[in-house]
Amino acid sequence: QVQLVESGGGLVQAGGSLRLSCAVSGMIFSLNNMYWYRQAPGKQRELVAGITNGGSTNYADSVKGRFTISRDSAKNTVYLQMNSLKPDDTAVYYCYARNTWGQGTQVTVSS
User: Taking CA 37 as the corner, what is the angle to CA 36 and CA 40, rounded to the nearest 5 degrees?
Assistant: First the structure.
């Protein structure tokens, strides 16, 4: 079955950077679109960024110009580079593909 395992979360000061990784198994990675979502306490889960199997990307307005999604088919891994982090970026970040969610990784941005 499809498995998605996120890593790279942590505590960072405002203005700092983190890179999240999502290791994928159980599906043909190169054929599938990949997504990052996040869920802050008391809020609905929201789409942060997506990347198609062809490499086209899209971003939530709130992260455009600060976050970059990328994929490495040799490693079956999708990344989310997060720069200029803000306290409002604090959330659990989830990887999503093929109707499957990862377990999530916590990102906390202190002011």
Answer: 145
How is residue 2 written in tokens? Answer: 């499809």
Confirm if 51 and 36 have CB atoms less than 8 A apart: no
Nearest to 4 by CA among 105, 81, 91: 105
Cα 33 to Cα 17, 24, 48, 100: the distances in Å are 25, 12, 14, 12
In angstroms and rounded to an integer, the radius of gyration of the C-alpha atoms of the chain is: 13
Q: Give pLDDT tens digits for 58-107.
A: 999 999 999 999 999 999 999 999 999 999 999 999 999 999 999 999 99
